[in-house]
Amino acid sequence: MDKPQTLEEMDAEANAFAMELLMPANFVRREVKKMGGIDIENEKKLKRLADKFRVSTAMMAIRLGQLSRHVDALRALGESQ
Which of 8, 22, 74, 81 is least surrounded by CB atoms within 10 angstroms? Predict the structure, then answer.
């Protein structure tokens, strides 16, 4: 039997679910590609992307960070083989 989750663990799981629901990785990547890439310090592009998904710029910046870490991890895996 699994041990009960802490409130923090449940909150993190709920946030991860919400991010994937509101900003699916494949859709975010497609939109970023259409924009010719994005620098999260470019507030204008970040706001445009966030508005497209109807989320805050802070949430979009977090999602982009998650997706870039995923890409970096995949690259590292490929380089180590």
Answer: 81
